[in-house]
Amino acid sequence: PVSSNMAKAFTLVFYIIPEDLDDLQIPNAFAIPKEKNEITLTDIEKFFPLEGKFQFRFQYMHGDALVWLDLNNRKVKVPQYDDKIVMKVTRKVKKADLTSELSEDEPKHFEYTEKHGHDPLLNL
What we know:
The chain is of the alpha+beta class. 21% of the residues lie in helices and 27% in strands. It is built from three helices and five strands. The protein has helices spanning 41-47, 95-98, 102-116, and strands spanning 11-16, 28-32, 54-62, 65-70, 85-91. A five-stranded mixed sheet has the order 2-1-5-3-4, with helices on one face.
Protein backbone atom coordinates (compact mmCIF):
# COMPACT_ATOMS: atom_id res chain seq x y z
CA PRO A 1 0.00 0.00 0.00
CA VAL A 2 1.03 3.57 -0.71
CA SER A 3 1.22 5.86 2.31
CA SER A 4 -0.81 9.07 2.14
CA ASN A 5 2.30 11.28 2.11
CA MET A 6 3.57 9.44 -0.97
CA ALA A 7 0.31 9.79 -2.89
CA LYS A 8 0.36 12.32 -5.68
CA ALA A 9 -1.68 15.49 -5.25
CA PHE A 10 -4.85 15.50 -7.30
CA THR A 11 -7.67 18.06 -7.41
CA LEU A 12 -10.91 17.98 -9.37
CA VAL A 13 -11.92 21.39 -10.71
CA PHE A 14 -15.61 21.77 -11.53
CA TYR A 15 -16.93 24.03 -14.28
CA ILE A 16 -19.95 24.98 -16.35
CA ILE A 17 -20.20 26.72 -19.70
CA PRO A 18 -23.58 28.52 -19.63
CA GLU A 19 -23.77 29.00 -23.41
CA ASP A 20 -23.53 25.19 -23.75
CA LEU A 21 -26.54 24.97 -21.41
CA ASP A 22 -24.48 23.26 -18.70
CA ASP A 23 -26.20 22.87 -15.35
CA LEU A 24 -24.45 23.93 -12.13
CA GLN A 25 -26.10 20.94 -10.41
CA ILE A 26 -24.26 18.59 -12.82
CA PRO A 27 -20.98 20.35 -13.64
CA ASN A 28 -18.14 19.20 -15.86
CA ALA A 29 -14.81 18.45 -14.18
CA PHE A 30 -11.12 18.07 -14.94
CA ALA A 31 -8.12 17.15 -12.83
CA ILE A 32 -5.09 19.16 -11.86
CA PRO A 33 -2.13 17.25 -10.35
CA LYS A 34 -1.73 19.69 -7.47
CA GLU A 35 -3.07 20.33 -3.97
CA LYS A 36 -6.32 22.32 -4.05
CA ASN A 37 -4.86 25.19 -1.99
CA GLU A 38 -1.92 25.60 -4.40
CA ILE A 39 -3.81 25.94 -7.71
CA THR A 40 -3.37 29.23 -9.58
CA LEU A 41 -5.08 30.73 -12.62
CA THR A 42 -2.02 29.67 -14.62
CA ASP A 43 -2.71 26.04 -13.62
CA ILE A 44 -6.36 26.39 -14.65
CA GLU A 45 -5.34 27.71 -18.07
CA LYS A 46 -2.69 25.00 -18.49
CA PHE A 47 -4.89 22.02 -17.62
CA PHE A 48 -8.30 23.19 -18.90
CA PRO A 49 -9.37 20.41 -21.29
CA LEU A 50 -11.06 22.45 -24.04
CA GLU A 51 -9.25 24.27 -26.80
CA GLY A 52 -9.80 27.96 -27.33
CA LYS A 53 -9.67 31.19 -25.35
CA PHE A 54 -11.80 31.38 -22.22
CA GLN A 55 -12.73 33.72 -19.38
CA PHE A 56 -12.70 31.88 -16.05
CA ARG A 57 -14.90 33.08 -13.17
CA PHE A 58 -14.69 31.43 -9.77
CA GLN A 59 -17.54 30.83 -7.35
CA TYR A 60 -16.74 32.74 -4.17
CA MET A 61 -18.56 33.76 -0.99
CA HIS A 62 -18.10 37.50 -0.42
CA GLY A 63 -19.67 38.29 2.94
CA ASP A 64 -23.23 36.97 2.59
CA ALA A 65 -23.22 37.07 -1.21
CA LEU A 66 -22.27 34.23 -3.51
CA VAL A 67 -20.47 35.80 -6.49
CA TRP A 68 -18.51 34.84 -9.61
CA LEU A 69 -15.05 36.33 -9.12
CA ASP A 70 -12.87 37.30 -12.09
CA LEU A 71 -9.11 37.10 -11.58
CA ASN A 72 -6.55 39.06 -13.56
CA ASN A 73 -3.42 37.89 -11.73
CA ARG A 74 -2.43 34.47 -13.10
CA LYS A 75 -0.14 33.74 -10.14
CA VAL A 76 -2.77 34.18 -7.42
CA LYS A 77 -4.31 31.07 -5.86
CA VAL A 78 -7.85 30.55 -7.12
CA PRO A 79 -10.74 30.94 -4.67
CA GLN A 80 -12.82 28.06 -3.40
CA TYR A 81 -16.45 27.75 -2.43
CA ASP A 82 -17.74 24.95 -0.20
CA ASP A 83 -14.21 23.47 -0.20
CA LYS A 84 -14.24 23.07 -4.01
CA ILE A 85 -13.00 25.02 -7.00
CA VAL A 86 -16.07 25.84 -9.09
CA MET A 87 -15.87 27.91 -12.28
CA LYS A 88 -18.20 29.51 -14.77
CA VAL A 89 -16.37 29.50 -18.10
CA THR A 90 -17.17 31.77 -21.04
CA ARG A 91 -15.70 31.46 -24.51
CA LYS A 92 -13.92 34.60 -25.69
CA VAL A 93 -14.83 33.52 -29.24
CA LYS A 94 -18.36 32.21 -29.15
CA LYS A 95 -19.52 29.14 -31.07
CA ALA A 96 -22.10 31.40 -32.71
CA ASP A 97 -19.27 33.27 -34.43
CA LEU A 98 -18.45 30.09 -36.40
CA THR A 99 -21.98 28.81 -36.84
CA SER A 100 -25.46 30.08 -36.13
CA GLU A 101 -28.76 28.39 -35.36
CA LEU A 102 -29.31 25.14 -37.27
CA SER A 103 -31.97 26.70 -39.52
CA GLU A 104 -29.50 29.38 -40.65
CA ASP A 105 -26.35 27.27 -40.42
CA GLU A 106 -26.06 25.55 -43.77
CA PRO A 107 -25.31 28.52 -46.08
CA LYS A 108 -22.72 30.02 -43.69
CA HIS A 109 -21.29 26.58 -42.92
CA PHE A 110 -20.72 25.74 -46.58
CA GLU A 111 -19.34 29.22 -47.32
CA TYR A 112 -16.90 28.85 -44.42
CA THR A 113 -15.81 25.38 -45.58
CA GLU A 114 -15.23 26.57 -49.15
CA LYS A 115 -13.28 29.63 -48.01
CA HIS A 116 -11.15 27.95 -45.31
CA GLY A 117 -10.91 24.41 -46.64
CA HIS A 118 -12.09 22.63 -43.48
CA ASP A 119 -15.28 21.98 -41.56
CA PRO A 120 -15.52 24.18 -38.42
CA LEU A 121 -18.13 21.87 -36.89
CA LEU A 122 -15.57 19.08 -36.62
CA ASN A 123 -13.49 21.26 -34.30
CA LEU A 124 -16.25 21.99 -31.76
